Amino acid sequence: MVTYDYIITGLGCAGLSLIYYLLDSPLKDKKILLIDNSSKTENDRTWCYWAEKPFEIHPKNSPLIFWDTIKIAESKESVSAYLEDLKYFHIKSSDFYKEVIDKIKKHPNVSFLKDSVEQIQSSGKSIVQVKTSNSGIFRSELLFNSIPMSSYLNESPILKQVFVGWNVSSNQESFDPSAVSLMHFVSDQKRKTDFFYILPYTAKHALIEYTLYTKNEIDMKVMESKLSEYLENELGLTDYQIHFKESGSIPMSTLGFPPPTDPNIIHLGTLAGCSKPSTGYTFYDIQKHCRSIVSELSFTGKVSSRIWDRKKRFGFYDNIILNIAVKWPASLPDIFRKMFAKNQAKLVLKFLHEETSLWEEIKLLSRMNYSVFIKSLLNYEKH
Ligand SMILES: Cc1cc2nc3c(=O)[nH]c(=O)nc-3n(C[C@H](O)[C@H](O)[C@H](O)COP(=O)(O)OP(=O)(O)OC[C@H]3O[C@@H](n4cnc5c(N)ncnc54)[C@H](O)[C@@H]3O)c2cc1C
Predict the structure, then answer these.
(1) Where in the chain is the domain with CATH 3.30.9.10?
(2) What is the pLDDT of the chain when averaged over all its residues?
């Protein structure tokens, strides 16, 4: 049986990002097997991230879409924030999949197997073994896994960001293409956090998502009815076309998934804890994580388990926000709105990327409403 240098199981955002960086590194000639149960041709999600310029991995096979202003709105008040030298970039997942898969095809040392992974386990002697549904067993020295632990996510009592999005167009000019609507809070938020997110491509075409923070299983039909009500009641749209739908459930927790049991198994993506607990943004951290794995592997031949250690104080800030989301959701819209109203958007976004200094964090947080933070601190709990 062939033993691969590396096997990557799960070829979504993280698995494909890792192979992309590996193929640009001194490790590009390693014998690598990629396994996913989908052929990765479908457009199944839309990623956005903020940065000064598009990442190297940003697909070049389609026009660059970005915005330079974001909005947060409640029923009565709203704030528009200009991002200065940052941009809010947009990626259609099918463009991303195609570009990375085209790159893979140029490397005969990399094979792609379409099959379902049933089990991953150590087989001793520093070898990891992967059992697939139809193609048997494969072995490698290192295994990178990003297959979501869906059952763990569904069964554990953690907060999740559940959302459904429609890409819609109509003949009416209903959207403001100059700004992304990051959060539009419409309901009173007394018992839950829910909001609408709009990526306006033109005045007549946008991706609109309804997002709910919840610990429970949610019926997608109920979520979709919220979207159609919003289109009709808030935007006055009754006659529109839906081009595609996307949906998801992102963990909002600092507790993390169970770590791998073998040092030769490395978790990637959401599974590795790359989803920012208080916001759900994941794409940016996946890039940081995959680049640091490739860099360490190139220099030392190993990947240490500490490679994705977040600074503890950011976990603490996340828990303060998650505590508010769980216990006093009515305060959350005000927190997000004020954070952008009272600070430069650039600083807030740097903070959300966990790249601020302690001094910058003190400045940013000192401009916020203390009372709800103190309440959250006095009732501090890990979520
Ligand atoms: C609709 C949607 C929109 C999002 N938008 C944003 C955004 O704008 N910005 C942001 O930062 N984050 C966003 N996220 C969050 C996050 O960036 C994505 O979920 C991202 O795809 C996570 O990457 P991943 O590699 O961890 O998981 P995935 O991309 O989900 O990859 C997991 C892979 O595992 C494969 N797989 C599953 N089970 C098996 C099996 N048994 N055998 C073999 N293969 C298997 C799947 O086919 C998939 O390819 C979004 C998430 C969703 C769902």
Answers:
(1) 154-252
(2) 94
What is the atom index within ligand 1 of the atom nearest the CA of 284?
11
Both tokens assigned to 22: 């590996």
The rounded distance, in Å, linking the Cα atoms of 249 and 214 is: 10
**At the topology level of CATH, where does 154-252 sit?**
D-Amino Acid Oxidase; Chain A, domain 2 (3.30.9)
pLDDT above 80: residue 124:
no
Residue 15 C-alpha to ligand 1 middle, in angstroms?
10
Domain 3-53+93-149+257-308 has CATH 1.10.10.350: no
13 lines ligand 1 (CB under 6 A): yes
Task: Give yes or no for residue 281 CB within 6 A of ligand 1.
Answer: yes
d(CA 10, CA 5) in angstroms, rounded, equals 17
In which residue ranges of the chain is CATH 3.50.50.60 found? 3-53+93-149+257-308
Is the pTM above the cut of 0.85? yes
* C-alpha 65 chain-centroid distance: 18
